[in-house]
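Running this now, will post back.
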Amino acid sequence: SRVMAQIERLNVRAGDSVTRGDVLISLEQNDFKAQLAQSDAQIKAIQAQLTQTEKQLKRISDLYSQGLVSVSDLDDAKAKFDNATANLAIAQQQQTQAQVALEFTRIKAPISGVVVERLVEPGDTATPGKPLLALYNPQQLQLEFNVRERQAIKLRLGQTLQVNLPTLNISTEAIVTEIVPVA
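Update: finished.
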C-alpha cells in the first residue's frame, strides 16, 4: 500500500489467479474522499477570489490610466491578483495529490499470476511497506540451488542446462542467470 488506511475488502484468496491490473484490495476511502471534496471547495473559493482580484486589477488599471490612483494602488492590485493566481495553482496541485491518494486506496495486481498467501484481513490497517499479499508468476519461476565447486567452475551465465525435478515430475531446460560464489 502507498497510503495508510484500514482494509475494507479483499477480493482474492490464496490460490486465486489474477491478471495484471485486477483490484486485489480496497482500502477505506472516506478520508481521501473528504480531502478531495475539501480541495474542490478550496479551489472554488480561490477562483472566486481570483475573479474578484482580476476585476479589481482592471478597475485600478483603468483609474491609473486616467491618473486617478497612485502607482502603489496599482502595484497592490497586481500583487493581490498574482497571489490569488499562485494560490489557485497550489490548490490545484493539492487536488491532484488528493486524487492520486484516492486512487491508491485500490491496490491492483502488479503482475498476472497466482495469489500464494494472504497476509491481512478486512479491518487490518495497511501501511506503506507492509506486505499485504504474496503473488507469483508461474511463467517466471526460478530455481536456486547450491552446486559443488568442482561443477560450478563449468557453469557460465546464459548457459542452458537440463533440469530434472523428480518430486514434481518435471524435466525442462533452464538458463543460468546468476552465479553467486560463496565460501
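The beta strands are 5-10, 17-18, 23-27, 106-108, 113-118, 125-126, 133-136, 160-165, 170-175. More later if anyone needs it.
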